Known about the structure:
Layout: H1 8-21, E1 33-38, H2 42-45, H3 55-73, E2 78-83, E3 130-134, H4 145-151, E4 156-162, H5 164-177, E5 181-190, H6 197-207, E6 210-212, H7 214-220
Parallel strand pairs: 1-2, 1-4, 2-3, 4-5, 5-6
Amino acid sequence: xxxxNFSEQDxxxxxxxxxxxxxxxxxxxxxxxxxxxxxxxxxxVKPHWSPDWVPExxxxxxxxxxxxxxxxSKNIPVIYTVYSKTHxxxxxxxxxxxxxxxxxxxDIDFSLFYVEGRVWHELAPGEEEIVIQKSSYGAFxxxxxxxxxxxxxxxxxxxxxxxxxxxxxxxxxxxxxxxFKVIFGSDVTSTDDPEMQEPELRVLRKGFARVMAADEIIExxx
Length: 222
């Protein structure tokens, strides 16, 4: 195909192939990896407790636990993120409260949530494992995560947790923009609406990450 001779159908076909079949071209070196466990905390995982509960996150706990334990067995650092009460909530984007996803129409005491930042008990961090207290969607926003990873000599992040199209996806984009290689777990990330899972994976697959199932990730880390 000559330069300057792309039809509309040609570019559509190229885009669709990348969304559906794209595979980022980087080698996975276990010694260069760190696992990021994004927001697997009670507010998202504990059944029926919070309006932000993600049922699929609860169902994925055994698979995420398997991935965590495998990484620990390979001396791959496991880093957690949570939302909690930091700086009297003054470290948050001011427009956050204006977003409809805050469910302001509900008659509920929201001050009960996102205070302790407690990781779901089945996935509890080890004594020496790092927990990042974050104030917005992406784990790199206004946190020491980038410095921590660089001090660990890690250039690749493996992402699991919730929500795929918010905190996990934002973290993948921020990692990409900082020149980290990104491995994104397709079946160890979850959304509050299952219909939103694959559209986000398609975008990440085309432009930000190597999207893989947990079994594939574990196989690559052997």
